[in-house]
Amino acid sequence: MDHRVDIETTHGPIGGWRCDPAGPSRGAVIVIHEIFGLNAHIRSVAGRFAAAGFVAVAPALFDPVSRDVELDYDAAGVARGRALTAELGFDRAVDLVAAAARTVQTEGLRTAAVGFCWGGTLALLGNTRLGLPAVSYYGGRSVPFLDEPLRAPMLFHFGERDPIIPPEHVALHREHHPGATIHVYPAGHGFNCDPRDDFEPASAALAWQRTTDFLVDALR
């Protein structure tokens, strides 16, 4: 039940990856990728959500500026990913997330967003601008958007050893969004991503359980 999809957006068509559960769904999740594009890891995350009972759609957010991007977790991949995010911009990226959400909302499915790194900040914006319940994993660019009020349930995951998100930035999330749930793990940045050096299995497993529990509650 895992397959590529085409998503119509106001910025032209983009690709995506959809995974459907074997049985009745608990709702839908828009899986928002890191700066490394819609790669094998993000497709595997979508598959895990489907195994947990959710329809999962992962849009290829870089498609308006460069098609079919899949980058390695190395210095060259980081540099290219940062350049692509700058060229795309947050406003256009949010439009693409909204288009991906519409593909499942038209099926009558309650929909949430889950994002990682750059995608974690987009998950926050999916909440504040689109009204989607959202889970943000180590969203490293979120501080400039913390004045935007939440419109739905919100869950944040951070690593206490993350060099990109210092403790004072986590404290700002608590200050601006006291109604959100925030968890901090004994891990670094990218701790959910098994191909990365910062992968931390125990923290990833606990965060995943908390994420699926959150989604079950938010999408009932």
In N-to-C order, the SSE pattern is EEEHEHHEHEEHEH
Give me the Rg, rounded. Answer: 16 Å
Count of runs of 4 or more consecutive helical residues: 6
Helical proportion, percent range = 25-40%
* Sheet of most strands: 8 strands, mixed
The portion of residues forming beta strands comes to: 15-25%
Q: Could you list the spans in which at least 5 consecutive residues all have pLDDT below 50?
A: none
Largest sheet, spatial ordering of strands: 1-2-4-3-5-6-7-8
Per the principal axes of the C-alpha atoms, what is the gross shape?
globular
Structural class given helices, strands, pairing? alpha/beta
DSSP strand count: 8
Mean pLDDT across every amino acid position: 97
Layout: helices, strands, pairs:
Layout: E1 2-7, E2 14-19, E3 28-32, H1 40-51, E4 55-59, H2 75-88, H3 90-105, E5 111-116, H4 118-130, E6 134-137, E7 154-159, H5 167-176, E8 181-185, H6 201-218
Parallel strand pairs: 3-4, 3-5, 5-6, 6-7, 7-8
Antiparallel strand pairs: 1-2, 2-4
Organism: Lysobacter zhanggongensis
Protein name: Dienelactone hydrolase family protein
Pfam family, one: DLH
